[in-house]
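pinging the channel bc i need a second pair of eyes. not urgent but kinda urgent?? the chain im working w is below, pasted from the shared doc
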Amino acid sequence: MHSGIKQAALWALGMSLFAVEPGGGHAASTADVRAISKEAYIYAYPMLESYNTMYKQLANPAGREYVGGFGKFRHYSEAFTPDNKDIVTPNNDTPYSWAWLDLRAEPWVVSVAAVPGNRYYVQQWIDLFTFNFAYIGSRATGNGAGNYLFAGPKWDGKVPPGIDRVFRSETDIVLTLTRTALNGPDDVAAVKAVQDGMRLQPLSGFTGTAPPPTLPAIVLPPYDVAKARSHDFIAYLNFLLQFTQPPHPSEVGLMKRFASIGIGPGLPFDASKLPPETLSAVDDGVEDAKAALAEKSKVTLSSNGIFGSREELKNDYVLRAIAAEKGLYGNSLVEAWYGGYVGDGSKLSTVHFAPGQLPPAKFFWSMTLYTLPDRLLYANPLKRYSIGDRTKGLQKDADGGLTLYLGHTSPGPDKESNWLPTPEGRYSAIGRIYGPSEAAMNGTWKLPPLQPVPR
């Protein structure tokens, strides 16, 4: 079919779906359009937040976030300092590596070299829905070398010899946010060596066979946050749905419902072509969705348990959207636990861990200090931006417990080894446990309170 005729046919199909429900049902009322638009916006929200990152990392070579295209790692190895202002609440424990894979034509093989000693690393793999669908690393697969095959939803080929594990994705496009433990500024070279041992190659390259026919390149539409948070979210969602076929069995009915307002894989969307009352109903649905998410956000006080696989989140689309708002690409709870405080640096405060109640980490734990409201690392004379079980010179209490001091002024020379300097005003301190115990995950173990030191 000629491309112009094909686009016209798709347009006609997309617009007709606003008037008639699938199967020849009654015309969708404005109330139906509003309700479905609300549901669809909540469904789409995390996907569009992720698309913002995808566009920056894949489609803009001039941007500082560009990773080099599909199938390429971009590694970051340096320790963060207050001079790093690219991201908020930066993780000063594990420098990041990013990569995106296009699984449409064939699977890809992710290879890792053996990681020396007990150094922690994790490759978190995320699909277009923002589900954490696969993990490679110290917890999930160990520190040995391995080859892991990543296949899209339509692949039905044979797994070749030499593959240690197969991960199936629901979507044709996936990404990894990989983290490698950094034990201080002097450890950067060792982190780079671990990162250099990570390799990506298409399955045909791994097996040395002829590659499949080349598919047309994916052309990413420019990301515009204003459009993504308006009725034009439908255009972005329709674009992304092309790479999520076939739909998950649990979403077949949902997709039929969405189709009644013009949502479908690859369908065009032009708000100017909609009847005014229909467009108004879509707009009202979007605002209803934003209000619902704002209410949920107010009562979601912890990020633990809001990230994970489809099975773990149980298709809770509101929770999935809140997770993207609170911290896009957060680790599943089994990998990392998060908690923290907001304090006043003009008052010296302590965090006291009783004997036997240190953060229960299989790998390591830390507490990182951030300024407010910008949530960046705090410049201080000690150049100490986080503290934890890897901090040199950390002193335990006489009874085996541990007391940390947080404040703008030093707690005294005998306590300075346990001091995390803060600004004079408000600050945020975030605790992270890598490889949390069951007690941390189920809430039996709790982070002790931040207590002002009596004057």
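so Confidence is low (pLDDT under 50) at residues 1-16, 19-26. and The two ends are 81 Å apart (CA to CA). — does that match what u expected or am i reading it wrong
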